[in-house]
Amino acid sequence: MTEREVDQALVERAQAGDRRAFDLLVLKYQQKIAALIGRYLRDSAEVLDVTQDAFLKAYRALPGFRGESAFYTWIYRIAINTVKNHMVAQSRRPPGDDVEAELAEQMEMGARLRDSATPEREALSDEIANTVQEALDALPDDLRAAIMFREIDGMSYEEIAMAMECPIGTVRSRIFRAREAIDKRLRPLLEA
Amino acid sequence: MTTATPDHWHLTALLDGEPGPGGFEVAISALEQDATLRARFERGLLIGQVLRGETSTPAARTISARVSAALATEPVPMRPARRQRVPASINRPAAALAIAASLVAVAVLVGPGLLSGPAMESPGMARNIAQQGTAEPAGSDDAQADAQVVERWTMEEPAGSTALDALLVDHRERASASGLTGFIPYAAVVGQSGLR
């Protein structure tokens, strides 16, 4: 089951009336969509409001989603339209066009759209990033390699097993333990 | 380190998009019911984002709760049920068969009374026709009938006359064999008549 298939299964559950399945989709993509909208808007409260609005619009439009594209692609488009409409309603001109925004998302080169982080937001983001990096550095080599293969290189369990010359079960275990170790350090920061 | 439960294992597999057979259902059910597990799932997503160098927005962690609260008062937008189409290859013969069966049933119940004509002709008439068309000898039991004078029309074309004779013989054979009158003895199953 690929990530897209997992999303599609959640979408189908939500379409059948399972609202908690949609909650999981929100949970999964709230960071990405908020980051996307944060490239258009400076005010963090406004970012949260528009992100919430985008998800609500997606929920209402969910019966029409036929799975011809990935769920993320679909919600991404809704988010772009939502933030643009929001800016027009606020008598502000939306910057650039969709292609520009997509390039910014995909290539991390949207400098013009990205300077919206407040000092507080940047500080917390930096703290999270530093915590994760420190936890990663403290991991044994085999755990660090496994989680990096998975999260950074996007390799499957099978590919990692071949690269590390070990059974898939071992890969699964290493990734699990690596996440646990990082989570242990990250949790107090997020719960504070 | 936290004690790992089966749900935790399913969760990490779900995060990696590799839940395995049955793992998806287990993980989703666990996530839907356990808030602690949901928080763990969310942190797992965040860890992946940070490792990939993607922008993280800490305040965005509140969005799922906000959306959930906003949706609590909304009706569920159900997907309209698709009309299930029966393939034409299945549908048409079934309909044709049903219609044919209905017609036969009506004909059996109503037809004989309404449609039967007067008992035609004597056996001798057909026999005479047969004699003309096929030159078959008449049986001795039918001597009286043989003696009757049978009037019939004449046709210009010999081929047409022969065909008509054959039809009349066929008619007599069917009518006398089945004991039925009217059109019933001639009823043929639709679709088979073309094969003759």
From TrEMBL, chain A:
Residues 25-92 form the RNA polymerase sigma-70 region domain. The keyword DNA-binding applies. SUPFAM superfamilies: Sigma2 domain of RNA polymerase sigma factors, Sigma3 and sigma4 domains of RNA polymerase sigma factors. GO terms for molecular function: DNA binding; sigma factor activity. Coiled coil: none annotated. One of its GO terms (biological process) is DNA-templated transcription initiation. It comes from the Bacteria. Belongs to the sigma-70 factor family. ECF subfamily. This is RNA polymerase sigma factor. The lineage of its organism: Bacteria, Pseudomonadati, Pseudomonadota, Gammaproteobacteria, Chromatiales.
Automatic annotation (TrEMBL), chain B:
The chain crosses the membrane at residues 94-115. Keywords: Membrane, Transmembrane, Transmembrane helix. GO terms for molecular function: sigma factor antagonist activity. Residues 11-84 form the Anti sigma-E protein RseA N-terminal domain. It comes from the Bacteria. SUPFAM superfamilies: N-terminal, cytoplasmic domain of anti-sigmaE factor RseA. Pfam families: RseA_N. This is Anti sigma-E protein RseA N-terminal domain-containing protein. The lineage of its organism: Bacteria, Pseudomonadati, Pseudomonadota, Gammaproteobacteria, Chromatiales.
